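Changelog note: in this version the structure field was regenerated for every chain. One regenerated record is shown below for reference.
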Amino acid sequence: MSTTLTCPNGHSSTESDYCSVCGTLMAVPAPAPPSPVPVPGDDDGPTFIPRPKPPVEECPNCSSELDPTSKFCEVCGYDPTTGSLPKPPVVSPAASDVAPDDDAAPDAPVTGTWVVVVAADRAYYDRNQVAEVQFPLGVPPRVIELPVAGDPVAIGRRSASRGTNPAIDLAGPPEDAAVSHTHASLLREGDGWSLVDHGSTNGTYVNETTDPVPANTPMPLKAGDRIYLGAWTKLTLELHPDQPN
């Protein structure tokens, strides 16, 4: 026996999916909800067993709940894929709103006592290879204080016959015979000094240069500069700052 169904348009249809008269989709009844699952041995009636909730994943860094659809923790930014936190932002220092004072006084120059330390330098002697002059052994350095102002400070070897009596006398003992009697001079220039070679026979050298100082041409010096002359003589220009009161 065939079953006759009524389509939404009121026709009697022998088909259950589409109306056999007008072709309209037949209404499909909604499926019945699942029956509760009874627990055996329960005299009070069937007991419903709730479906277990999915486990909640926590952020290992801040213990906040992680959204499974997000790649990062919304609280601290922890990345569970790489196990790392976001790098902190780089904060640039704010520019100072205070403009430099163009009228500010410059730093005062260092004041003190200028001295020349006279010493025998073996390395300089070995480079010169002056066989006629023997290197002195066991000679302690000498400290010569320079004047605050005044005439040039002469460097050379004293000689009564020549009338030379330099402030920095290298006639000894021990004597550096390769130094000219009127070898060079130190000139006071403002807060510092300059060196002038007077056309010496063996020349004058500053620091580690291999070229001699040009004759009769002032060369500015600074504290710590080394002057080499003769066969073994080294003169070191030093500034000893004044001690605070």
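Spot check on this record: Residues 112-241 form a domain with the Tumour Suppressor Smad4 fold (CATH 2.60.200.20). The chain has one helix and twelve strands.
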